[in-house]
Amino acid sequence: MSDYRAPVKDMRFVMDELAGFKALSQMPAYEEATPDVADAILDEAARFTSEVLAPLNRVGDKQGCRMTDNGVTTPPGWKEAYKAFCEAGWNGIVLPAEFGGQGLPDTLGVAVKEMVCSANLSFSLGPLLTTGAVEALLTCASDTLKATYLEKMITGEWTGTMNLTEPQAGSDLALIRSRAEPQADGSYKVFGQKIFITYGDHDMTDNIVHLVLARLPDAPAGVKGISMFLVPKFLVNADGSLGARNDAYCVSIEHKLGIHGSPTCVMAYGDKGGAVGYLLGEANRLVPALNLKRKDVLFTWAGAPLRGALACLGVRLFQRTADIVAAALVVLRGDRSALGADQGGGWPCWRHRAGGLGAAAVAVRSQARRSQRSRCRAHHRRPGPRHRLLYPRNRRQGWLCRPRHCAHRAILRRGSRSRLGA
Q: What is the DSSP string of 315-368?
């Protein structure tokens, strides 16, 4: 059984002292997000994740998802946990209230999301992708599609996915072959196969809303010819009830290390005449909504390597909070002054401020190295060319140490080979 305990006090420190959460309650859109409300939400999220989600980790890893004649089944306890998750309102905590969400600020939503992901990553991927799909629909769906799908997705009655990768097209979306043929009624028939589709099929909800990338018959070559389509597992009748089964099926599931409880599916569209889909946004344009979906995925994907880099340096997550957040500010907005003159004038990461995830990791590692200097200051000496290249000189504090008996040497050696390194 997991003993996950959310670092609520550290989260509140970051929110109050660094992110200025109290000022948000002065804004008309977030006037209900008072500090007292935030305390109650974080405490309840910590209880829910530690008592409900964390204990399912072992069950999900040992038993995993299974492929049956009726589709994919999730591990024991998954359906009940998801129902409790949605009934408590966690699924729509930051989504618009007009469609059934709570409309709370992302500053609070990120803290809750961190708890859910840390307590049970396999479980968290389902709500994570649903939130991304909701944001995509809010951005580019028609009013009819919004009225049909948004409320049920925000409340958790239906889930959402994103379908990008194909057997021949991994990160290079220009190689996508899935196609969409326009129909007389304004819909489309979608054909193709997608792989590595997280929560592409499961037994937790009655319907699943797939966002699928495909090409129209007259689409230009490359990424400029990609369109996005909404393809539901079950078609929806005019009165909102579920209709016929759509031609979108899971044909097999993958087994990813560490997230066996998350159904990673191979999806086939159009094997029985074509899957009915609806265009999102403009035709032949990779809509900005795709970035909204990938943003939530990046939150989870980036968390693991960044925590790994911190662990390699001997720094726990949320420890040295001020330094870590200051480093993130350098990367996100180029604010060198955030580091302060007493912390080296911002020299570690100003060159990387336009860099993305790698730059963020460099910034965090640079800040963490400062916290380690006091442990090995006696071992400082002039380094060789390789060390000089990796770690610029700080004239006031000298060079980082390299002796074999110093624990810091092993940190530098592992860090220099890391894929997150400079």
A: --TTTTHHHHHHHHHHHHH--GGGG-GGGTTTTTTGGGTT--HHHHHHHHHHHH
* The pLDDT of residue 398: 43
DSSP per-residue letters across 77-121: THHHHHHHHHHTTGGGTTS-GGGT-----HHHHHHHHHHHHHH-H
CA distance 360 to 305: 11
Distance, CA of 402 to CA of 400 (rounded, Å): 7
Q: What are phi and psi of 351, to 5 degrees?
A: -70, -20
- Residue 411 has what pLDDT? 41
Q: Which two tokens stand for residue 265?
A: 């599916």
Q: Which residues of the chain have pLDDT under 70?
A: 1-2, 287-422
pLDDT digits (tens, 9 = 90+) for 282-339: 898 875 545 555 555 544 444 433 333 333 333 333 334 444 444 454 444 444 444 4
DSSP state of 175: G
CA distances from 227 to 106, 217, 250, 294 (A): 28, 11, 22, 16
